[in-house]
Design goal:
This is Small ribosomal subunit biogenesis GTPase RsgA. It comes from Kitasatospora phosalacinea. It is an enzyme of class 3 (hydrolase). The protein is built from 9 helices and 13 strands. By secondary structure, it is α/β, with parallel strands linked by helices. It has 3 domains: 86 residues, Beta Barrel (OB fold (Dihydrolipoamide Acetyltransferase, E2P)), CATH 2.40.50; 158 residues, Rossmann fold (3-Layer(aba) Sandwich), CATH 3.40.50.300; 70 residues, Orthogonal Bundle (Ribonucleotide Reductase Protein R1, domain 1). The strands form 3 sheets. A 6-stranded mixed beta sheet has the order 10-9-8-11-13-12, with helices on both faces. It has a 5-stranded antiparallel beta sheet with strand order 3-2-1-4-5. Strands 6-7 form a two-stranded antiparallel ribbon. The radius of gyration is 24 Å and the shape is globular.
Amino acid sequence: MTVHDPISTSAPAPAHPLAGLGWTDDRAAAFAPLAEAGLLPGRIVRMDRGSCEVLLVDPEGGEPVTRRAATRPVTTADTADNPCTGDWVAYDPAARPAPALAAVLPRTTAIVRKGAHKRSEGQVLAANVDTVLIAVSLAAEPDPGRIERLLALAWESGAEPLIVLTKLDLVHDGDFVRADVEAIAPGVTVLTVSAETGEGMAALRARATGSCALIGQSGAGKSTLTNALTGTAAMTVQQVRSVDEKGRHTTTARELVPLPGGGAVIDTPGLRGVGLFGGEGIGQVFADITAVAADCRYADCSHRTEPRCAVRAALADGTLPERRWESYLKLQRENDHIAARTDARLRAERARHRKHLSKATRARPKP
């Protein structure tokens, strides 16, 4: 007689209500000790001064809800470690005088640029994103140097960059411009889209899965793209100036908006300055230059006067465009400068810490 195993009739466990926003079993396992302390997992959807909006699961209804929380308990002197849009956090509903964040979970990726001030600190634009959508308007001639800078910022984050050439309905040479952009973005997908007519949007939706962040100049159409991707009017949109095709700062805060069917997009304010904070992304943007330099006679070639320099040979025969080489050198100089300033700041902070400990030791009563 053959004995058959009974067929299991138990239904699979339902997905977590925040699974579409990136909540995983690994994050749940890491959060378990915090859950035992009565804290709730959530994701920051918007930052304001001293507080934020957190999307979490209502313990009573079991549905996603947005709640406000104070950020001061997790705010530090290092701006790069402070909570930002896209962070997964521990929400404390019992905090007094108001609910607050109790912890920020480790980030998988983070878009970090140099702060707009003179101090050598980083500013996080968005966290835990899978794809960085670099919006570039076709209504004005794209700036190759700026695109390379934004690409370095995206690669540095640990996420995958994707260039979106917007406002295709306003030009007739979109394919030619795309070819030019592809030439300075090796290994990166470049799409041409029109949020107004819908052309190219299906391809973008197919690639914009998981969590995405939109970065670019004001007027590039980031808010319009956000509305098109989400199928809502979540973001306010303004027209660019007809005189110079420059945009107005419509988006004033980084905001996470869920996508239909799962995933999310983070719209960010227009970037006037894009200071890099780290150098790994530069090597990926200029992988073609790195490949050429590998053929130099000397491993430590400075590409100035050494014999059999492959870089100078490529510049001479036009294989390596002069503009691209100058862009590479400029970003390298900036990176070296910020790295030196960061090291100096860390040394100064350690010196102050040692001085504080020394004073405290001297002030301690002797036995």
